[in-house]
Write a structure and sequence with these properties.
With 162 residues, the chain is mainly alpha-helical. The chain has 7 helices and no strands. It has one domain (2-150). The relative contact order is 0.13.
C-alpha cells in the first residue's frame, strides 16, 4: 500500500515542482531576451522530444506557454495556471479548449495584421482522436509565425498590430 501511495505522490510532487519552480525560473531566464513573450519562437521538435523524455512534465510547461501566449496576443491577463489545471484534470475540457483557442489565436493574429488560418476544426477533430500533441505542435507553429511577424529580435510588430 505504501508503494502505491509513493507512486502517486511522486508524479504529483514533480508536477508541482515543474509548475511552481520550473516555469517561473525558465521565464525569468528569458525575460531579458524576450520582453514580449510573443517574440519567442520554440522548436516544435524539441518540445515534442522533451515531452516524451520527461514523461509529459515538459508538455505541461509547454501547454502553459501556449496558454500564456494566446492570452497575451488577445490582450488578456497572462495568468493561466487554472486553465492548465482544467486541461489536465477535466476530461473533455481539452477538446473545448483546443477549438476555442484555435479561434482566439487566429482572430487575434488577424486583428494585429498577421495572417493566420483558423484551424479550430482541425484542432477539434485531432482532439477527438486523442492527438493532442499534434494540436500543441500546430498551435506552436502558429505562435512561431506570430513571433516571426514580430521579428523575434525585438523589432516592432507589423503595421496595424496595435
Amino acid at each position: 500500500m505504501k508503494s502505491s501511495v509513493a507512486l502517486v505522490a511522486l508524479p504529483v510532487l514533480l508536477l508541482f515542482l515543474a509548475l511552481v519552480v520550473g516555469v517561473p525560473l525558465g521565464y525569468a531566464a528569458r525575460a531579458k531576451r524576450y520582453a514580449d513573450p510573443l517574440q519567442e519562437e520554440k522548436s516544435i521538435a524539441a518540445c515534442i522530444l522533451l515531452s516524451f523524455v520527461t514523461f509529459g512534465i515538459y508538455q505541461i510547461c509547454w501547454i502553459h506557454s501556449i496558454c500564456k501566449k494566446i492570452k497575451v496576443l488577445n490582450g488578456e491577463d497572462p495568468s493561466c495556471a487554472g486553465e492548465v489545471c482544467l486541461i489536465l484534470f477535466i476530461p473533455f475540457y481539452n477538446i473545448y479548449w483546443m477549438f476555442t483557442r484555435g479561434k482566439k489565436l487566429a482572430e487575434a493574429a488577424n486583428r494585429r495584421g498577421i495572417p493566420l488560418n483558423d484551424n479550430s476544426i482541425i484542432y477539434l477533430v485531432l482532439s477527438l482522436f486523442g492527438l493532442n500533441i499534434v494540436n500543441y505542435a500546430l498551435l506552436q507553429n502558429d505562435l512561431n509565425a506570430v513571433a516571426r511577424a514580430y521579428g523575434g529580435d525585438g523589432r516592432q510588430p507589423p503595421q496595424g498590430a496595435q
